[in-house]
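worker-3 :: picked NAD(P)-dependent oxidoreductase
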Amino acid sequence: MAALRHRRHALSPAMSTTTQGGQTAGTVAVLGSTGCVGRSLCDELLRTGHRVLAVARHPAPHTRADAFVPLDVAAAAPEEIAALLDRHGVTAVVNATGGWGTTVEEMRSAHIDLVERLVEGCVATSRRLRIVQMGSIHEYGPVPEGVRIDEQREPGPLTPYGLTKRTGSEHLLAQTRDGRVDGVVLRAVNVCGPHTPTASFLGAVVARLRALGPGEVIGLDVADARRDFVDVRDLARAAVAAVHAPVTGLVVNIGRGEAVPMRDLVDALFDAAGVDAASAKIDSAEVASKGGGWTCADIRFAAQVLGWRPTIELGDSVRAMWEAAADTTSLEVS
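worker-3 :: tokens ->
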């Protein structure tokens, strides 16, 4: 611990810059920097005058940052994490890691173990760091159709994904209440926009449309569901706002506040791709979701405490998703 304290006195002086919003900018560590959310987050932090430490298991050519460190945070010792944060003079951490995973063990590692190690690593720096946890609207579990999900709703997830995401978020909030870290949880809806991964439904549709040959017909099973989607660049703006806002110990929902039929989003993708409807065979499918057939976030609290509202229309987001998929650097890396 003494060695960690010594490193703290030798922090980089580069943290006296100012953001575009007038706040004192610092060095922000982005965990999961090579993924869809992390990539946009690094871009937004750099755009607003921050220094960025990008952290992921593997490097990627598309990562933009002042420094990159390859590290599996879920497997790293807290002392290793603390040394990394001190060495780069980190003032805040945004946890944008955590894919969906295919097993409970993978989800536990990504959503629980990682958060626990991150918290202990931040505590070991001997200063109270801001941690912004990119959570999920699925932490609330399924809700009746027509309900706008606000932050007062008691979480009741039923799936391993929702349960593990909720456990990680609640651990951070509990450690914040104990005064060990300065945490905030952003519960985000489904993401669309540039570089959406193929593990998502819309990302998979984009990949299949990109591979569609002349005269070929694409078959899709589309659930009769209505979901809230937010552009990843709007989500990145919310996370940057949360780095500085007085939101300690709070949960803030991030979305567009609209429940859109999945069929409408698929049609928008076909329009962006210039694919005729005759090239598609679309069948109805059972709802198979981590949060049920309906999600719609109440985003009034985000406007109140973060000064944030979504700015990118879904049509523009879908077009950006299609156009970005032509770039080979859009491949998801972790």
